[in-house]
Design brief:
By secondary structure, the protein is of the alpha/beta class. The protein has a domain of 133 residues: Spore Coat Polysaccharide Biosynthesis Protein SpsA, Chain A (Alpha-Beta Complex), CATH 3.90.550.10. Helices cover 31% and strands 23% of the residues. It has an 8-stranded mixed sheet, with helices on both faces. A two-stranded antiparallel ribbon has the order 2-3. Strand 2 and strand 3 form a beta hairpin. Helix 5 crosses helix 8. The chain starts with 5 loop residues before the first strand and ends with a helix.
Length: 283
């Protein structure tokens, strides 16, 4: 497989770990150096071949819709003033005209599984991608890597994975699989557990914010009920649907849902931009 026709962005959360900044600005629009976090996620979805983008949002986060609307007047002003570099940067956040954007409101946050289920009536045929924008993965576009590796005949789901310290497993969905840090890029898992205690965790291989889901997962989501934290957990539906696979991506992940992660990501983007400018100047 190569393309993912539908990509879901669960963006309804309040961003409490980033307060007070997120009192006014949705966390997805906070800048990583000079680029809103959501713009990285948008570009990643387009690189995976998305033709329909579904944003599961909240009525109080209208700024996300505003960001995705065309900025014709701004672009015309920048062009008239000859600010080509800035104009090109703004245009990188555009949604192509042949890509559809749908907003679905999640009035009450009942877990990631609930957010994904809110998008279910609007899916195109085929496997579905999910991007959590506050998990920024720099380098090779992660979802496109995953789409190239996804085999719908033998996989019910493919989930981005990385090793985490044992004392952090209770913050993640954890795979029950062999291989550890030296495993294959794609590893079949016996199971998948949401936020286990360190004593009960089957491994320290954790899910991070990229998923490819088959229709079986959406069927399971409708029946799993509430799990950890009283929420509808995507992890539980993925486990119930079976044929779970972990994907070790090649990029570098930054947790931009917390302040230190956002600072680290900003420094990484700044360094990459500086290196690129130096390389271009040397040519």
């Amino acid at each position: 497989m190569s393309d993912l026709p539908t990509v879901i962005f669960p963006v309804a959360g309040l961003g409490t770990r980033m307060l007070p900044a997120t009192k006014v600005v949705p966390k997805e629009l906070l800048p990583v150096y000079d680029t809103p976090l959501l713009q990285f996620a948008l570009q990643e979805a387009l690189a995976a071949g998305a033709r329909r983008l579904i944003f599961v949002s909240h009525p109080e986060k209208g700024a996300i819709e505003a960001f995705l609307r065309p900025a014709d007047r701004l672009e015309a002003t920048l062009a008239a003033k000859g600010k080509q570099d800035v104009l090109e940067a703004v245009r990188e956040g555009r949604v192509p005209e042949d890509v559809e954007v749908i907003f679905v409101m999640q009035e009450e946050q009942l877990g990631l599984g609930h957010a994904v289920l809110c998008a279910a009536p609007h899916l195109l045929d085929g496997p579905v991608g999910v991007i959590l924008p506050d998990d920024l993965i720099l380098g090779t576009p992660c979802l496109a890597e995953m789409a190239a590796a996804f085999d719908p005949d033998r996989m019910g789901s493919l989930v981005a994975a990385q090793q985490v310290p044992r004392n952090r497993v209770s913050s993640y969905g954890i795979f029950d699989c062999d291989g550890g840090a030296t495993g294959d890029v794609v590893t079949a898992a016996r199971g998948f557990v949401e936020k286990p205690s360190p004593e009960k965790a089957p491994s320290n291989l954790a899910a991070v914010g990229r998923y490819i889901l088959s229709s079986d997962v959406f069927g399971a989501l409708r029946g799993v009920g509430r799990g950890a934290g009283g929420e509808i957990q995507l992890t539980d539906a993925i486990a119930a649907a079976g044929r779970v696979h972990a994907f070790r991506f090649s990029g570098k992940r930054h947790d931009c849902g917390c302040k230190d992660g956002m600072v680290e990501a900003t420094l990484a983007v700044q360094s990459a931009r500086r290196d690129r400018h130096l390389s271009m100047a040397a040519e």
